[in-house]
# Entry
Amino acid sequence: MEEKDVLRLYETSRRLVHETPMAFHRQLLSVVNWGSRLICIKGAKGTGKTTLLLQHIREAFGDADDKCLFVSLDNLWFAAHDVIDLADWHWKHGGTHLFLDEVHHLKSWQTIVKNIYDSYPSLNVVYTGSSMLQLESKGGDLSRRRVPYTLTCLSFREYLKFEGVLDFKPCSLADILENHRAIASEIVGKVRILEHFWRYLKHGCYPFYKEGVAEFDIRLSETVNQILEIDYPTIDDVSVATIVKAKKMLMVLAESVPQTPRMAQLYRELETDRNQGLKILKALARAGLLQLLSSQKVSLKDMSRPDKIFLDNVNLMHALVRDVDTGCARETFFLNQLRSAGFEVTYPIQGDFLVDGKWLFEVGGKGKKFGQIADIPDSFVVADDIEVGIGSKIPLWLFGFMY
# Structure
């Protein structure tokens, strides 16, 4: 490997770091233990993984320190050069940190990352990849070496901060359940919260909305296509026919979620069998496009069929569906924010959602009553179109303040 070849990568790295905006940081930036030797940051396309890395580099190293190197592995440079050779060059020339973006574009990426980790003990490696990655599968198991993190979509709280409207600390779920009236009163005393909440539901989940709200739905639809046409076959080695079926499944579900799925009917529409259909369904969930809700705590790997299917977030609903159902949007927002905050959410016998096996929630409009969950301990109504709640009735928007 010649010096002139490598220097281009260092120049690109310095330029990207220098031009990275620093005004707004995702909460995860302060959560990651950047001192760990091997860090994995996973997340759906468009959530801001690349920006997160570049912001950390600029904060920790400045924009002209060649001890750290940022490279995107979808760069054509890697069609003719080897990543391990690059790591060796970087280490031999004083490098201490290597940031590998979009690692899923590498064949045998787990083995390559493991070899770099094992061969250069003084080199810190951070890599990002699609949320579709099966981190423990195939060769080069990294589970004992890496420290994993997931970058989710923007919370409603982060969106308000990104907009410069309100900078408010995250609230724990326990605090919201116990003190929601005081918290909501403080917030609505500073901002017209429902106006901003409506805008968030339309376009606030992905940071790239800042590049143009008018074109956001089109760009989000293109992002979905990139996930299915590029990431999916790269990671799962699927055929063109399977990609077409995945697109059709997503659109069929988008028109009807949330629903208790008739899986046999869905598979017939796709002209596929149960095994392939379930694999596609799970791939769409791993990709950050669907949320699968089950009555039991099970992993995607073990799930035979979900009890209910949602799109991952409300922005996807507006991008893919002409007429968004209000009730569906409420439930989708609630599920997305709770799971993004790290809670286990299952489908209960009564009510809409059971959180961590303890708290029961019924989600609806401002006139929503307790109905079937009345007299059940630790049960709550989550109501849309209200600024401040009372008793066990909590504003829907407030659940967007957990991260």
